[in-house]
Design a protein that fits this description.
By secondary structure, this protein is an alpha/beta fold. The protein is built from 9 helices and 14 strands. The strands form 3 sheets. A 6-stranded mixed sheet has the order 6-7-8-3-9-10, with helices on both faces. The protein has a 4-stranded antiparallel sheet with strand order 2-1-4-5, with helices on one face. A 4-stranded antiparallel sheet has the order 12-13-11-14, sandwiched between helices. A hairpin with a 2-residue loop joins strand 4 and strand 5. The protein starts with a strand and ends in a 7-residue tail after the last helix.
Length: about 290
């Protein structure tokens, strides 16, 4: 579906994207996460063709998008701000995008518009932030694009509508085998819907993990010892301390899970309990640090 190789971009002399490479398979949802300012939005704009890379290539279904720009109508990008369309009515918006997407399914668009009780005859500037987010998610799915790029798409949505639109997105991915790359700070949301998570750090992709591999490769443990001055995990590079409150320490085990558990048990802890692991735990482990703006 999508192949990205050695992508680089500088803006005003500042390195924003450096040597980014990854692949997106058909019928998958990929979450793009990272601290503020690491280049997530810039990466999505490069993929959408809004910005040109300084170096590297982006291939969609085997075609280099620089050489074949018309193939970009196989993807749809929803930015984090859609204020440029504030002067449009919904009908204007549909007409504008129909000129670029011949396959735009107006019947589905207006069906979903009615389903979510969005007005069809008002200026978009009169929509709330959540209504705009919902409108452009519906539009993205209605274009029948094979690849959808979403930059913080659920900001402003209430809990009920958010759940409904995420379910719609999952169904469309499954039924039509489209692919989605979604940047979001809502880690719990991504954990529920994504197949893959890409972690951005320092202008590049730090790591890529599959959601179904998280619970196989990582463990989150809560431990306590009578003598808190002697910690067996101090000598274990695969173990990271997440939090410590008094004698109780929460650990993230990143490899050698079975051996690490055995060692901790042999150290006779007062408490050794396994906790549910989340993407947020891995986010803190991989991307935490004072050099990144919160």
């Amino acid at each position: 579906m999508l192949t990205v190789r050695n992508l680089n971009k500088q803006i005003d002399g500042k390195r924003i994207i450096e040597n980014v490479s990854f692949d997106i398979a058909v019928g998958t949802i990929t979450g793009l996460i990272g601290r503020n300012g690491v280049g997530k939005s810039t990466l999505l704009r490069l993929l959408a063709g809004i910005l040109d890379p300084d170096k590297g290539e982006i291939r969609l279904n085997g075609s280099n998008l620089t050489d074949h720009p018309l193939n970009k109508n196989s993807m749809f990008y929803v930015p984090d701000s859609t204020s440029m369309f504030n002067g449009y009515t919904v009908q204007d918006l549909v007409r504008f995008h129909r000129s670029m997407y011949d396959q735009l399914d107006e019947r589905s668009f207006y069906h979903w518009l009615n389903h979510f009780q969005l007005p069809a005859n008002r200026k978009i500037r009169s929509f709330s932030k959540g209504m705009k987010a919902l409108l452009f998610m519906i539009l993205a799915l209605s274009t029948r694009a094979k690849l959808i790029l979403l930059d913080e798409p659920t900001n402003g949505l209430d809990v009920i509508v958010n759940k409904q639109i995420m379910q719609l997105l999952i169904e469309e991915v499954s039924d039509r085998q489209i692919s989605v790359i979604m940047s979001s700070h809502h880690l719990q949301e991504l954990e529920k819907i994504a197949d893959i998570i890409m972690f951005m750090k320092g202008a590049t992709i730090d790591s890529i993990i599959r959601i179904d591999e998280v619970r196989q490769s990582y463990r989150k443990l809560q431990v306590a010892f009578a003598d808190s001055s002697s910690n067996p995990w101090d000598l274990l590079p695969q173990v990271e301390v997440l939090t410590q409150v008094g004698r109780v320490t929460t650990l993230l085990v990143k490899s050698d899970v079975k051996e690490t558990l055995q060692l901790l048990q042999e150290s006779q802890p007062l408490l050794l309990e396994e906790l549910p692991i989340t993407i947020e735990d891995i986010f803190i482990s991989k991307l935490g640090g004072d050099q990144y703006v919160s």
